[in-house]
Amino acid sequence: MTKQINAGGLLIGGGAPISVQSMTTTKTVDIDETVAQINRLAALGCDIARVAVPDFVSADAIGEIKKYVTLPIIADIHFDYRLSIRAAEAGADKLRLNPGNMRFSHISQNSKSAGQYSTNSDGSISEAGADLPADGLRAVTEICARKGIPIRIGVNSGSLSKKILSKHGRVTAEALYESAIESIKALNRYDFDDICLSVKTSSVPLTISAYRLLSERTGYPLHLGVTEAGPEQMGIIKSSIGIGALLADGIGDTIRVSLTAPPEREVEAGVAILRALGLRPGYDIISCPTCGRCELDIVSLAADVEQRLAALGSDITVAVMGCAVNGPGEASRADYGIAGGASGVGVIFAKGRVIKKAPMNKLVDELFAILTPN
Asked: Are 116 and 128 in contact (CB under 8 A)?
């Protein structure tokens, strides 16, 4: 069992339910649009949302966004450690950063990404004028420790140091693991260990191997994902294989399906992966792939049943089968199901036992009359 962290009340690791993450595609400074998108994600089953923080204005927006959402907010930080501090002050519940690409020492006061600011001894931000601290990482860990904000170390194939790439010759599972360990040590140097890890790549086999190394050799909670997985269809396939294989082995504490698609599709896919593995309650549909023996339109019926089940919101398994001879037996694990029959009459069954006959064009209505008697 992994170590447990707390991100704004959401427990990650340590036996807690596996959480689904996504990242907003709105400009974080557009508070209304960002809030609306986060609330849509929450309605679909998202547990925690990440927002981009490219500048101080975006960091400041987190505080206002949190007034109107229920999900914990992760601040996604790159390059400038001062953005981490500002986001923490604004109320971020978790930081995502990669110490390997952060500028922690003597950043120019003319930094375009963060404006002209400096950090005070208490970790707060003040106007430019004082020298920046020599070790910004200490300032980040101090404010996170003080506010109880965990940090996700996000390693990917594009962020490996030249030293590690030179040592391994290319991006390998060992190289990704070593980069993660270096980052852990950097945070541990300041007695900070409230850490989550990710080692995402766009290669499914490489990603699986890297996460298995982390699982074998560390006890930190793991955020799973196949990064840059691609457009929706292929991205879901890659993510289902990579995330699913690891979850099936008991590896992983939180997931994101990364798609070149609206984040709503990411959440729907992530929730579906968890449901398919029995890791999150919800409806399930068993349906046959259809054949020449079918006496009903399986494709349309399955789509109709799925739409109605989604609205029903029950933890139930329903089968849609084309053959009355094999259907109830093949789908006997389903709570309820329908199957085609002869002479325009189909059957409704429960746990493999036929309980009712009905005209084919009334099968779905009759089924849901049983499922929703009131």
From this structure: yes
Q: What does the pLDDT look like over 332-373, one tens digit per residue?
A: 889 999 998 777 888 999 998 999 999 988 999 999 999 987
Strand-strand pairing, 19-23 and 48-52: parallel
Token pair listed for 94: 């978790």
Burial of 226 (0-12, 13-18, 19+ CB in 10 A): buried
Mean pLDDT calculated for residue range 249-263: 97
Radius of gyration of the chain (CA): 25
Q: What is the DSSP letter of 170?
A: S
Return the SS3 of 101: helix
DSSP run (H or E) holding 184: helix 173-188
Together in a domain, 310 and 269: no
The answer on 312 and 331 residing in a single domain is yes
- For residue 348, the enclosing domain spans 284-371
Amino acid in position 183: S
Q: What is the value of pTM for the model shown?
A: 0.89
Residue 257 scores a pLDDT above 60: yes
